[in-house]
Amino acid sequence: MDPHTTTKKTRTCSDCHENPKSMGLGYGNIFLKKDGSFGFTPSSSVNATIFGQDRRLDAFVNTDGVPLVHTSRKGLRPFDQRELEKIVHVGLCLSCHPGMDDPVMKSWKKDTTPKPCKAFLDLARPIK
Asked: Is 26 in contact with 59 (CB distance < 8 Å)?
């Protein structure tokens, strides 16, 4: 995990909101489930024989927001499930509304979810 606060140059919106590695999930693909929540398919499988681990070594958190590693720095933690859901939701809007100068993004109030537009509803329609 390499958040934007560790470098002078900020990341792009899509680098955080569409990149599962940046979210702490590891390498793989994010998808929408039939219930509207998101899922994650890792690009690597667990190999319990490596270092005695029962998890992928590239993951910091699972999609339920359960931390997979312990940190030594006080206050450092992965995103929880609610935060991950919000991050992914913003990512779904970025293909049509790519920046903070977009009217949709300007009107997005903190800790709220805007009413989805038609394009979002089409994009978010679960695969049968």
From this structure: yes
